[in-house]
Specification:
Elements (H helix, E strand, L loop, with lengths): L4 E6 L6 H9 L4 E6 L1 H8 L10 E4 L2 E4 L1 H12 L6 H26 L3 H29 L11 H17 L8 H11 L2 H9 L9
Parallel strand pairs: 1-2
Antiparallel strand pairs: 1-3, 3-4
Helix pairs in contact: 1-3, 1-6, 1-8, 4-5, 4-6, 5-7
GO biological process, one term: glutathione metabolic process
GO molecular function: glutathione transferase activity
Catalytic activity: RX + glutathione = an S-substituted glutathione + a halide anion + H(+)
Length: about 210
């Protein structure tokens, strides 16, 4: 009997979207539970192993930590490295993506309006270009991918996370980077991922 998957997260993409992408890539059907903050705080948070989400349940077993979940699913899907060295290359990219994510989340979630206005310029003109120029070059030198010259979960993680970050800064952060835009197109063209994008809730849907 196939395993039963249930993913719980807020009503947005965020850290759950890479998990959704990998499940979709594998054509795995899953229950996609999206919570508002009140429901999370009142009735779900206390059921999480560490009080965090996303939570992926596989046959009733609750798993947390988005990157750990992605790494596990990637190994099952053939999206991990073939050895420890290749896995290291993937992890370097994923951890660097999170460096960018932390900067944007700090801007988007935890700053008052005055602070946001002061931070937006440096974020868009310095922080994001610093990293994304390097990512763009890496893709150009790796046969269209971010690691190991092949599709890995680093590519999927990047595309899924960059979607959410673009929403946060109200700008397509890949617009100036042709190789990254091509990578997004490649990842989102996989049939399972394409289907996921087409059917995900309209209130968080976006197209560039």
């Amino acid at each position: 009997m196939p395993s039963k998957y249930k993913l719980t997260y807020f009503t947005l993409r965020g850290l759950a979207e890479p998990i959704r992408y990998i499940l979709a890539y594998r054509n795995i059907e899953f229950e996609d539970i999206r919570l508002d903050l009140d429901t999370w705080n009142s009735s779900v948070k206390q059921t999480s192993p560490f009080g965090k989400i996303p939570i992926l349940e596989i046959d009733g077993k609750k798993l947390t930590q988005s990157r750990a979940i992605c790494r596990y699913l990637a190994k099952e899907a053939g999206l991990a490295g073939k050895d420890a060295w290749e896995d290291l290359q993937i992890d370097i990219i994923v951890d660097t993506i999170d460096d960018v994510r932390y900067a944007i989340v700090d801007y988007g979630y935890f700053s008052d309006e005055k602070s946001k206005a002061a931070k937006k310029g440096p974020l868009l003109n310095e922080t994001i270009p610093f990293y994304f120029k390097k990512f763009d070059t890496i893709v150009s030198e790796n046969k269209g991918h971010l690691a190991n010259k092949k599709l890995t979960w680093a590519d999927i993680y990047f595309v899924a996370i960059s979607e959410h970050l673009s929403l946060m800064v109200e700008k397509d952060i890949l617009e100036s980077y042709p190789n990254l835009k091509a990578l997004r197109k490649t990842v989102q063209a996989y049939p399972g991922i394409k289907k996921h994008i087409e059917k995900r809730p309209a209130d968080i849907n976006i197209s560039f």
